[in-house]
Structures are given as C-alpha cells and as structure tokens.
Amino acid sequence: MKQQKENSNTDQTKKTPIKRYAFAQKEGDDFSCVKLLSGKYEEVIFKYDKVAFEPKPLDTGEVPLRFTYDIMLNPKNVDVLSTDFKNYIGDILVEIVEQQLKEGKVNFGE
Known about the structure:
alpha+beta
C-alpha cells in the first residue's frame, strides 16, 4: 500500500477566515453599529462614538487612534469595559478605517 507523502488540498483542509464582525443598522437610526460574530464577545452590538487620531505620533512613528464607544446590546453580559475588549474593537476599527481608505470612502483633512 502506498502512503501519501503530502496532504492533498481538499475542501476539508482549506480554511476560510472567520468573519469577526458585520455592520448592523436598526430601522430609523441614522448610524450603523458593529455586531461581533465570533469569539468571546459574540453577539455584542456597539457603535463607535468619537474617533480621532492623536495629533502627535509616537516615537515609533505610529499614530495612536483614540475612540469612545457605546454598547447597544450585550446579551451574554460579557465585560465590555476591559482592556481586552477595547483592544479587540480597536483592531476592528483599524480594519474598517484601512478598508475605507483603500476604497476611497474616507478622506482626512477635508
């Protein structure tokens, strides 16, 4: 009997990235929220409130992004005040801003 030397690339071995969030908007609202779709914060719905870049970059050249947020729904009563949660939604915010810049949907300084 011959042994297979490598795993074949089948549908079972391909991994698709897990979508972490989706945009949600309640009828009548003039703003969109973010619904978390996976992980320990799954089902939390929140909206970013004030979003701004710090005026002065860090010594590393990075420009910190500051934001506030409002929790709209927290059905599992997870800790949404923790540093871990703030970092998690901060990473999502960076993804959103980068995507909008890439698509030309947001401009700074105008």
